[in-house]
Write a structure and sequence with these properties.
This protein is an alpha+beta fold and 348 residues long. It has 10 helices and 12 strands. The protein is 45% helix and 25% strand.
Length: 348
């Protein structure tokens, strides 16, 4: 019996899976392994004697009640997806399993969680990239073919508008030309998604690009009674296409300003983090819902009445062509977009 207990103790503590033993009735912690403590941020001493609900580990407390009911009926539950909250208030997506065990005269649970947070992120990123590639192939194939006849139509509308016998219909012609220009702008953005789009990478510095475009961004902010603050730290040069980085910044800053009330401030930062160079854009808006966050960057998905749904898709495409990643941190106090350029993109 002692040998069996020693083996269980070693396997329990050495397991890379998050494991704990709790009472079935109220979820009071009896033991927790190293992986559980490392992932949740709580020490073993902080957990013991407290319940999982007291510690706020379940994002949805109804999930704990559901697990208890299943265990009471069947004695076991396996591979159920749920969201847990760490000590630092980070969300951990896990597949949990539990088994009813008896310790003395008390009915307890052996609770096991497989952290799939990173796996889900990778799956979502792969899905988004697949969509981007598909749209990019379509853009490269038909984008120019649509744009060329539209340019011809616009030219003839301009000619007809200027004829004297069409003066009464000038407002109608102006409206048609405006709509053609809007359609042309959408197609222009669509073409920027082209999978084989050529970019001109040159040695550039993010601080220089930010400084050059700042007056334009500031003017846009001031017209809305909002502010932009710039905090630039010393960063190394990167191989960048300046036009694309400017477009990326304009799209993100425009979205940030639109999400904020008058008098609020949007902050643009550059800094070095570990072995990466980061361009960070943080607003003081209302945040992004989980549902919208999951679809962020999906071509033609928009929450705006007059939006094209291509702005964020363009941003992700630009980041991809520069070997960069976009990370999003959002909440009720605002959203921060970090565009992370690895040092592999830096010119030697």
């Amino acid at each position: 019996m002692r040998l069996s207990e020693e083996r269980f103790s070693k396997a329990f503590n050495a397991s890379p899976l998050l494991m704990c033993i709790t009472s079935l009735e109220d979820g009071r912690f009896i033991d927790a392994n190293r992986s559980f403590c490392l992932s949740t941020g709580y020490s073993r001493e902080e957990l013991l004697g407290h319940t999982s609900l007291e510690m706020g580990l379940w994002k949805n407390t109804a999930d704990r009640l559901f697990m208890k009911q299943v265990i009471e009926e069947h004695g076991t539950i396996a591979n159920v997806e749920s969201i847990f909250v760490t000590k630092s208030q980070q969300l951990l997506l896990g597949l949990y399993s539990a088994e009813r065990i008896e310790i003395g005269k008390e009915t307890c649970l052996l609770f096991i969680v497989m952290d799939i947070t990173e796996r889900k992120k990778i799956e979502m990123e792969m899905t988004r990239l697949d969509r981007m590639n598909m749209v990019g192939q379509v853009a490269a194939s038909i984008g120019h073919e649509i744009r060329n006849p539209m340019t011809t139509v616009r030219g003839f509308l301009q000619v007809l508008k200027n004829k004297q016998d069409h003066e009464e219909d000038i407002e109608i012609y102006n409206l048609m030309i405006e709509e053609m220009d809007r359609a042309n702008l959408i197609i222009k953005e669509f073409l920027s998604l082209a999978k084989d789009k050529l970019i001109q990478l040159e040695i550039n510095n993010l601080n220089t690009i930010v400084s050059n475009i700042f007056p334009l961004l500031q003017a846009d902010a001031m017209s809305q009674d909002k502010n932009i603050e710039v905090r630039l730290e010393k960063v190394p040069d990167l191989m960048l296409d300046e036009k694309e980085i400017r477009q990326l910044m304009q799209n993100l800053v425009r979205n940030g300003l639109e999400s904020m009330a008058a008098g609020r401030t949007l902050t643009i930062r550059t800094f070095v983090q570990d072995r990466d160079v980061v361009l960070s854009i943080q607003d003081q808006g209302h945040g992004i819902s989980d549902e919208v966050l999951r679809k962020l960057g999906t071509p033609f998905f928009t929450t705006k009445e007059d939006g094209t749904g291509l702005g964020m898709a363009v941003c992700y495409g630009i980041a991809q062509r520069h070997g960069a990643n976009i990370e999003v941190d959002t909440g009720p106090s605002g959203t921060r977009f970090d565009i992370i350029f690895p040092l592999t993109t830096i010119s030697g």
